[in-house]
């Protein structure tokens, strides 16, 4: 992954991508509440702090830097996303973005919540 791609993702607005995540999961019969549950699990945000990130239009870099606590089980998220193995991505913020992408994909594909949340 080249630096220009990484920089572009860092600057992307989480608030801009969030509605696309909602649309993706709802199209597959899942809910915004389930999406929020996986975001809370991954980042430690709650409804109020997540809404604040959306309101301030935080970019992905800020969104993950300000995350209350990344879930220690996030390292169990593995597999391919956008042609990259998430467990091999070296840039820490980029890896977290791809973790979230992977979880959203799993939700949209109908995976059970307890499997998505690595229980």
Folded structure, characterized:
This protein is mainly alpha-helical. It has one domain (3-116): uncharacterized protein sp1917 domain (Helicase, Ruva Protein, domain 3), CATH 1.10.8.290. 60% of the residues lie in helices and 3% in strands. It contains seven helices and two strands, in the order H-H-H-H-H-E-E-H-H. The chain has helices at 3-11, 14-27, 32-43, 47-55, 60-65, 92-108, 113-116; strands at residues 80-81, 84-85. It has a two-stranded antiparallel ribbon with strand order 1-2. Helix 2 (14-27) runs parallel beside helix 6 (92-108) and helix 3 packs antiparallel against helix 6 (92-108).
Give the tags:
two-stranded antiparallel sheet, mainly alpha, 119 residues, UCP033199, SP1917_dom_sf, 2 strands, DUF2200 domain-containing protein, 7 helices, Helicase, Ruva Protein, domain 3
